[in-house]
Amino acid sequence: MLDVLPLPHSFKSRIGTAVLRRATVDDADAVIALLADDPISAARGDVASEADRPVYAQALAEILAEPSNDLLVVELDGAVVGTLQLTSIPGMSRRGARRLLVEAVRVQSGLRSSGIGSAVMRWVGEAAAPAVGAAMVQLTSDAARTDAHRFYERLGYVGSHRGFKYNVPSA
After folding, report:
1. pLDDT < 50: residue spans in the chain
2. Which residues have C-beta within 8 Å of that of residue 50, sequence separation ≥ 6?
3. Cα(154)–Cα(19) distance, rounded to whole angstroms?
4. Phi (first) and psi of residue 170, to 5 degrees
5. Cβ neighbours of residue 62 under 8 Å, at least 6 residues apart?
6. What is the bridge-based pairing of β-strands 136-139 and 69-76?
7. How far apart are CA 156 and CA 79, in angstroms?
8. 149 near 49, Cβ under 8 Å?
9. 69-76 β-sheet, strand order
10. What's the pLDDT score for residue 24?
11. What's the per-residue H, E or C state across the chain?
12. Exposure letters 82-100 (e unless 16+ CB within 10 A, then b)
């Protein structure tokens, strides 16, 4: 885990005060539900199947055990309503600049446009990135997520690169 992150972090949204905190193994089901709540993730197989729970639990344990990774959740009124993964990446380019990679940002579908996502992403840029010594924050977003692209652009993110993925065939 990225133990230098200033957590927990309380913030106000349009629907109340929320807390951004590090996920624990007890949050696995809530995070799985957030992934399944997203149509693009669900189409990729994140459907919150009980049969898949062990692989998600293993992934969460690995993320939390890795010093350069962290999984965070947003709690509102005692319920987990958002999540994101952060990875600190040392680099050679840009004169050895460190990057903070943001992945799997999700806010419960009924709470989007409540200010939760904006507050979390501002915290990433203003608090998390400096805490890990990152010169930049980067993320990828599925090409179909046009609403998300507008959201990130409003926050100052620039669509500067084109991403590529390769799905490794199963053995």
Report:
1. none
2. none
3. 23
4. -75, 150
5. none
6. unpaired
7. 29
8. no
9. 9-13, 16-22, 69-76, 79-89, 99-107, 136-139
10. 97
11. CCCCCCCCEEEEECCEEEEEEECCHHHHHHHHHHHHCCHHHHHCCCCCCHHHHHHHHHHHHHHHHCCCEEEEEEEECCEEEEEEEEEEECCCHHHHCCEEEEEEEEECHHHCCCCHHHHHHHHHHHHHHHHHCCCEEEECCCCCCHHHHHHHHHCCCCCCCCCCCCCCCCC
12. bbbbbbbeeeeeeeeebbb
Amino acid at 78: G
In angstroms and rounded to an integer, the radius of gyration of the C-alpha atoms of the chain is: 16
Which residues partner with 17 through β-bridges?
12
From residue 161, give the alpha-carbon distance in Å to each of 96, 101, 157, 169: 19, 14, 11, 26
What is residue 171's predicted lDDT score, i.e. its pLDDT?
81
- Burial bucket for residue 155 (CB in 10 Å: 0-12, 13-18, 19+): middle
User: What are the phi and psi torsion angles at 35 (to 5°)?
Assistant: -65, -45
Q: pTM surpassing 0.70?
A: yes
